[in-house]
Amino acid sequence: xxxxxxxxxxxIEAQSIEDAWAQATGYFAGLGFARANYGFTRFxxxxxxxxxxxxxxxxxxxxxxxxxxxSGSFYARPPVFRxxxxxxxxxxWAWVHDTMAAGHLTAEEEAAVRQNASIGIVAGISVSFPxxxxxxxxxxxxxxDVSLDHTDVDCIFAGQRDAILAVxxxxxxxxxxxxxxxxRRALTIRQREALVWVADGKTMQDVALLMGVTPAMVxxxxxxxxxxxxxxxxxxxxxxxAMLNMLFLPALAQISQETA
Length: 260
Hints:
Blueprint: H1 5-13, H2 17-30, E1 35-41, E2 56-59, H3 63-70, H4 79-86, E3 89-92, H5 94-101, H6 107-117, E4 124-128, E5 137-143, H7 150-175, H8 189-199, H9 204-211, H10 215-229, H11 234-243, H12 250-259
Antiparallel strand pairs: 1-2, 1-5, 3-4, 4-5
C-alpha cells in the first residue's frame, strides 16, 4: 500500500478531471489494465441513471469506443453494468463467464457479452462506489489486457486488491469534486459569473451593475447558460451548475471579491 501513497497525493492535488483520470489510469495500466471506463451521474432515478448527456463518462479506449458504448444505450446491456448499478463494492468478471455458461443471463446480456468479446473485452474488474445520496452513482471498469484471462485477473486482484481500491476510490472522490463540463456546450466565464450572482440573491439590475453590462446582456448570458445546461429556468440552471461543480470556482470567487 505504501507504494501508492505518492500516487494518491498526486491524484488529490490534481487540478482537472483529465489529470486525476490520467494519474489513476497510468497506475492501472501498469497492473495490466490499460483499458478503463469510468461513469458517474448525479441525476439517477429509480430505474435509470438519468440522461446520459448529463453523466460523466471517461475512457482510455478512445472516441470511437465511446460512441459505440452509448449508441442505442449499449452501456446498459452488459451484466457488469447491472451488477455495478445494484451493488457497492468490487468484483472480478469471472462470474459473468460462469453465469453465462450456466445459462442464467438474459438474451440481451449474452448478446452484449459476445459483442464485447468480439473487440477483446472479456475479463476485468468492476468497482461500484458508495453513493453520496439516492441520485448519485459511480462505477469503474478495468479491462485486462488481451493477453490475460479471468484467472490472471483473479490473481492480480487477490494480490493488489487494497491498492487498486484505494486508487480507485481516491480518483472517484477527486473527479466528482472537480468541475464537470456539459456535453452540449461549456459555460463561458460570463455565464458562470451571472449564475453565481443570481445564486447570491442579486436582482437583474444588481447583476448588470456588478458585471458592467446591460440587463439585456445579463439575460442573454443566463439564456445561453440555460441552453448549455438544458434546463428551462435560471433557478434550475443555478442548481444544476452547482451540482456539476461548475459554479463558485476560485477564479469566480476572485471576480466576486474584486467587484463586491
